[in-house]
């Protein structure tokens, strides 16, 4: 099976057979568990148990359920939501300097907290997603829901800004999603994208950030992509585990390099003005992120 960019999608057990990749996964997962307050000794024990299950499962659903149970018994799944409280504030601070005055769409808004912070600045904010997160009902925001592969329920050229924050790699129809972002954003409007990328060497980061992910940075481009696949699956299908197929997050693993995303954006009617390497900026989400500032060309 291949993703939207023609890249192979690897089995989880195939990924963890590589010792260098396993070291990178251990390094990054150890940091997450320490952030959650787990002791160093217990971190290593939990990771080793998870990796053993990853190497030896008979079915993917069995692996997901088994590792989720390990994390639940260790209190990890209970701690994750507590640590995500600061995530929206961090993202808000990253994107706010690039938001124009005017109407703003947060596409793939999740819990809506980033949109809520922008609304407090006096912006008219619309949040949209393919499902309604329980937190949305607590917010006084204009929420619009749409079906998978359907058009966004927004007018042409409605928004001065569109935010697409770690969303594109979850879309099975990346190029269609880009068409929709182009359609609803005004000419010369701002599109702010955060994406999980691979093929990085960390030279854009301060040394302390590089040191935290040295095993990941030592991998080749394809090795890093494999780590991204492992953690995207781990975060969305294990930590946020559900037996209900309708509640499973879509994970087509449509990762790209930073330069690859630039080419995709510019072939889709956008001009990339700036890219910022954020690195592994979310302590509870071990993925390397870049921030892309785009302008709509019409």
What this model shows, in words?
- Strands 1, 2, 3, 4, 5, 6, 7 and 8 form an 8-stranded mixed β-sheet that branches.
- The protein has 2 domains: 12-83 and 217-243, no CATH class; 86-199 and 246-296, Vaccinia Virus protein VP39 (Rossmann fold, 3-Layer(aba) Sandwich), CATH 3.40.50.
- The protein has 12 helices and 8 strands.
- The mean pLDDT is 95.
- The longest helix is centred in the C-terminal third of the chain and has 19 residues, at 221-239.
- It has 298 residues and is α/β, with parallel strands linked by helices.
- It is globular and about 50 Å long.
- Helix content is 43%, strand content 18%.
Keywords:
alpha/beta, Rossmann fold, 8-stranded mixed beta sheet, 12 helices, globular, 298 residues
Number of domains: 2
Full CATH superfamily name of the largest domain: Vaccinia Virus protein VP39
Q: Provide the gyration radius in Å.
A: 19 Å
Which structural category fits the helices and strands?
alpha/beta
Instruction: Please outline the major beta sheet.
Output: 8 strands, mixed
Q: SSE layout and pairings?
A:
Layout: H1 12-15, H2 19-35, H3 40-56, H4 60-73, H5 76-83, H6 87-95, E1 104-107, H7 113-119, E2 125-129, E3 142-145, E4 159-165, H8 174-184, E5 185-198, H9 207-212, H10 214-218, H11 221-239, E6 256-257, H12 258-267, E7 270-279, E8 289-296
Parallel strand pairs: 1-2, 1-4, 2-3, 4-5, 5-6
Antiparallel strand pairs: 5-8, 7-8
Helix pairs in contact: 2-3, 2-11, 3-4, 4-11, 6-7
Summarize the model shown:
With 298 residues, the chain is an alpha/beta fold. The chain has helices spanning 12-15, 19-35, 40-56, 60-73, 76-83, 87-95, 113-119, 174-184, 207-212, 214-218, 221-239, 258-267; strands at residues 104-107, 125-129, 142-145, 159-165, 185-198, 256-257, 270-279, 289-296. Strands 1, 2, 3, 4, 5, 6, 7 and 8 form an 8-stranded mixed beta sheet that branches.
């Amino acid at each position: 099976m291949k993703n939207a960019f023609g890249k192979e999608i690897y089995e989880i057990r195939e990924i963890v057979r590589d010792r260098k990749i396993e070291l990178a996964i251990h390094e990054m997962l150890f940091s997450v568990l320490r952030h959650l307050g787990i002791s160093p000794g217990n971190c290593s024990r939990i990771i080793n148990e998870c990796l053993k299950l990853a190497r030896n499962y008979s079915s993917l659903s069995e692996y997901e359920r088994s590792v989720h149970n390990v994390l639940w018994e260790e209190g990890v799944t209970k701690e994750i939501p507590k640590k995500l409280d600061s995530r929206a504030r961090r993202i808000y601070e990253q994107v706010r300097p690039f938001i124009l005055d005017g109407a703003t769409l947060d596409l793939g808004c999740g819990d809506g907290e980033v949109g809520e912070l922008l609304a407090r600045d006096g912006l008219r904010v619309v949040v949209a997603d393919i499902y309604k997160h329980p937190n949305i009902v607590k917010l006084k925001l204009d929420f619009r829901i749409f079906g998978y592969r359907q058009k966004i329920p927004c007018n042409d050229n409605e928004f001065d800004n569109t935010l697409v924050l770690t969303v594109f790699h979850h879309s099975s129809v990346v190029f269609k999603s880009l068409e929709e972002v182009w359609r609803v954003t005004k000419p010369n409007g701002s599109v702010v994208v955060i994406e999980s990328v691979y093929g990085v060497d960390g030279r854009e980061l301060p040394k302390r950030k590089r040191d935290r992910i040295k095993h990941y940075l030592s991998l080749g481009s394809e090795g890093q992509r494999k780590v991204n696949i492992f953690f995207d699956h781990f975060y969305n299908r294990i930590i946020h585990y559900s037996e209900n197929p309708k509640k499973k997050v879509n994970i087509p693993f449509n990762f790209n390099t930073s330069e690859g995303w630039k080419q995709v954006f510019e072939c889709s009617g956008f001009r990339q003005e700036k890219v910022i390497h954020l690195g592994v900026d979310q302590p509870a989400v071990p993925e390397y992120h870049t921030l892309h500032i785009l302008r709509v060309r019409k």
